């Protein structure tokens, strides 16, 4: 979940930068339109001058504006190219982060499933352990009863003395033989 949160934060940052670049792009286009409007206004202003003056003034102004606009357009094109490159990079990073987030979620889900399976196996083993202990105690009880009966049978024969101490299995076997 930490990796997923980190990836989501990176994703949000990248998306924020993408929005900022798009906003700047729109602002540059708006400025270009405003400059075109200014040029149109100046053109209208010069219409009132004499024809010759107007032509000369218009040509001079047009050349100045053209030069200025060329510079602005060149700068804006350069900035737009950079922004498009950054947008492309950000979109690539965004795709990569989304893939990583999906992979991280799937990995976390697989780990959770593996934990649940391990827990289930542990519970099954614990249940088998309890069953085995119960069966072992039952067998031990039967064994002790059988041993007791064998000892009684072996020492209930005439001429045999009852043992004074606890007997080993070898001693019981020897007495039976």
From TrEMBL:
<feature type="coiled-coil region">
    <location>
        <begin position="4"/>
        <end position="128"/>
    </location>
</feature>
<keyword id="KW-0175">Coiled coil</keyword>
<protein>
    <submittedName>
        <fullName>CCD27 protein</fullName>
    </submittedName>
</protein>
<dbReference type="InterPro" id="IPR052642">
    <property type="entry name" value="CC-FHA_domain"/>
</dbReference>
């Amino acid at each position: 979940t930490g990796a997923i949160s980190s990836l989501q934060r990176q994703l949000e940052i990248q998306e924020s930068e993408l929005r900022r670049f798009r906003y700047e792009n729109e602002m540059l286009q708006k400025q270009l339109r405003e400059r075109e409007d200014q040029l149109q206004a100046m053109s209208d202003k010069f219409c009132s001058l004499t024809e010759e003056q107007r032509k000369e003034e218009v040509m001079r102004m047009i050349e100045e504006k053209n030069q200025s606009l060329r510079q602005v357009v060149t700068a804006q094109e350069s900035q737009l190219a950079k922004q498009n490159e950054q947008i492309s990079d950000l979109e690539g990073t965004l795709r990569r982060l989304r893939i990583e987030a999906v992979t991280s979620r799937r990995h976390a889900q697989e780990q959770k499933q593996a934990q649940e399976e391990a827990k289930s196996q542990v519970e099954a083993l614990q249940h088998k352990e309890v069953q085995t202990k119960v069966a072992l105690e039952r067998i031990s009880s039967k064994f002790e009863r059988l041993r007791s009966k064998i000892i009684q049978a072996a020492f209930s024969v005439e001429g045999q003395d009852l043992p004074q101490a606890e007997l080993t299995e070898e001693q019981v076997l020897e007495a039976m033989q």
